Give the backbone structure.
Amino acid sequence: MDKAFRRAAKISKKGSVSLDIKKKTTLARITASGDIVETTLVGYIQKFPRFEKQDDFFPELVNLVIGIDRYKKALGALNWAAGRTELLKNQSLREVRRTKDPAIIESIKKGFYGRLGSYVKQISKDLLFLQDAKNKLRELPTIDPRIPTAVVAGFPNVGKSSLVTFISTAAPEIAPYPFTTKGITIGHIEDEWRKFQIVDTPGLLDRDFEDRNDIEKQAVLALRYLTDIMIFIIDPSETCGYKLDVQMKLLNNIKENFSDVPIVVAESKCDIVKTEGEAKRISTVSGEGMEEFRGELVTMLRKIFREKALEIPAEAE
């Protein structure tokens, strides 16, 4: 609004008589301020992406983070204000052209400015919402659905972030407290000319989806839509703060719900505790078992790469 009014205030037109000058200047000021507000709002609308609710990772994540219904409502409010601005501008221009009274011309201009400001004020909450949505959209991970993807899951503090950091290009925040991972972090595993995705999820708790917090829901969404291979991390040392039987209960629950997904079970922190089970035993601290684990994971991802029939880059042939 400041931009619109400042630019309008600078406009001054020439004319044959004072009434002509007044009318031409007012017409130009109404046009300029109205056009600035309208084109700015339309520009915002056009720059924001369109989302539809559907069973896919990114729309689901957007709906979780910002709310697609509220997002659409905000864009609709901007569209309403832009339309009302154009109608008001055209109506005010007609009224100015019809009158020969300088006082009425001034009244029309002031009325136009007042109603224009009122329209923008009515959508102020929508503008603030979209500003916040823009910032959140910038922070969302970029994921290529064509690339084979391994998703790392397990309870908080079992070593998921450490694993992703060790075997990929990602550098997620690591700290010894629950829900260290505030959002989904994407890393890439380089394999000659190929690359694979590995996703670090927030800690999962053994609860129904509706009972989870937003961070846990992001993890579930990642598992549901992204997983070609699931890596489930167990901490047999229980230094994560969760008993082993509770961790196993979650693993069994996930196996039931993701029966069509290959699940690789890895026991972390084998530098502290080792078991005799069939799980892979790894330690990101000592490095024990990490190279073998990475090699086996890459072999599985290569197989999925071929199954997805991705096009091989020409330079790699």
